[in-house]
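ok new one. same drill as before - structure tokens go in, u give me an amino acid for every spot. 368 of them this time. try not to just spam alanines like last time pls lmao
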């Protein structure tokens, strides 16, 4: 059984490996008549692209996306539009260095999926980790770009899905200094300029030590209408949590206040409702925009934790494929904090879930 697809009406199947000739995805369920070109997808690909600073892997990949199917244009249709048929996207790999991984061919990297892939399949692609690699997430970002197009096309307004790094290692931001405009001004997508400055020194020391660190990313979606999601087994927040947990290295997800809600009283945690301008108005958003698994119309807010990168230069104890004890050092080009490039991936996965739920809501109720 293959588990390389996600979504229901908006369904994405990703394919390809880190060191194969290419990777990509097939997207089914996109409504017809939506204008779509590579130029709509590429800006999001550029946001995730490796090698943009000394704080990410130095692998040089242009990540240029090609649309192979699912759109049409002629002398009457100037801009290609979706046809309602599967959209296939291709992203070629240009800068593989498979030889960097020859030393770990028979060794399992602790914290990585080497051991479990071998235990399950009896074979693994050790060149960059194959499907284990965060390189697979490039296809998800491409799918997220199309999901954003669906949301704006159906709703008639943009749904803004944006992410920020709010903690690196043990160092968090000061939320009183939060400024979304700052996220594009530093290499960490950090909304706090002072925290971003201190992170440069911290991550530089981690990188030079041949080690790695984890991170926490927050994603907020604005413009989401009330009513998306379904009770019990089709909850919006449950699907978002599942989608984010499928991202490589993610070990935890929380919606709204998340685990902090356990320390609050009922009065503190309640998002009180009044009428303002003839519309319901919530005094707070502790629930993260989801009540009973259904969107409330507030911002959908989610955070996810990313563990430290498993491929590090420091020697760690492990075993070989033949159950011999040894040490392993992972050479090559790796992110000292993979959480940095997880920001656009998290945005994409939230956008995909929202597009899927919007299509499901429209199919069930006949309205948006």
């Amino acid at each position: 059984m293959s588990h390389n697809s996600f979504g229901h009406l908006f369904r994405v199947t990703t394919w390809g490996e880190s060191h194969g000739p290419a990777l990509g995805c097939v997207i089914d369920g996109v409504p017809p008549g939506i204008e779509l070109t590579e130029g709509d997808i590429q800006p999001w690909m550029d946001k995730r692209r490796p090698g943009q600073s000394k704080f990410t892997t130095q692998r040089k990949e242009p990540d240029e996306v090609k649309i192979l199917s699912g759109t049409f244009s002629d002398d009457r249709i100037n801009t290609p539009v979706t046809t309602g048929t599967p959209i296939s996207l291709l992203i070629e790999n240009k800068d593989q260095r498979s030889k960097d991984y020859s030393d770990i061919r028979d060794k399992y990297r602790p914290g990585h999926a080497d051991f479990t892939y071998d235990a399950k399949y009896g074979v693994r692609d050790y060149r960059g980790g194959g499907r284990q690699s965060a390189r697979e997430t490039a296809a998800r970002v491409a799918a997220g770009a199309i999901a954003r197009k669906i949301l704006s096309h159906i709703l008639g307004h943009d749904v803004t899905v944006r992410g920020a790094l709010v903690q690196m290692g043990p160092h968090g931001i000061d939320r009183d200094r939060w400024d979304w405009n700052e996220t594009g001004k530093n290499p960490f997508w950090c909304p706090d300029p002072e925290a971003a400055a201190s992170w440069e020194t911290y991550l530089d020391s981690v990188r030079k030590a041949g080690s790695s660190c984890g991170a926490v990313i927050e994603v907020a979606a604005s413009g989401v209408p009330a009513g998306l999601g379904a009770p019990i087994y089709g909850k919006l927040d449950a699907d978002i949590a599942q989608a984010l947990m499928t991202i490589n290295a993610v070990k935890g997800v929380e919606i709204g206040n998340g685990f902090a809600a356990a320390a609050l009283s009922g009065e503190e945690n309640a998002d009180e409702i009044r009428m303002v301008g003839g519309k319901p108005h919530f005094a707070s958003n502790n629930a993260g925009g989801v009540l009973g698994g259904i969107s409330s119309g507030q911002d959908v807010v989610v955070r996810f934790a990313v563990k430290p990168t498993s491929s590090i230069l420091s020697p760690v104890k492990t075993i070989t494929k033949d159950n011999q004890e040894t040490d392993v050092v992972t050479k090559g080009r790796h992110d000292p904090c993979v959480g940095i490039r997880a920001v656009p991936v998290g945005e994409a996965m939230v956008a995909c879930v929202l597009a899927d739920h919007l299509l499901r809501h429209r199919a069930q109720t006949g309205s948006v």
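The longest helix spans residues 339-365. and btw The two ends are 35 Å apart (CA to CA).
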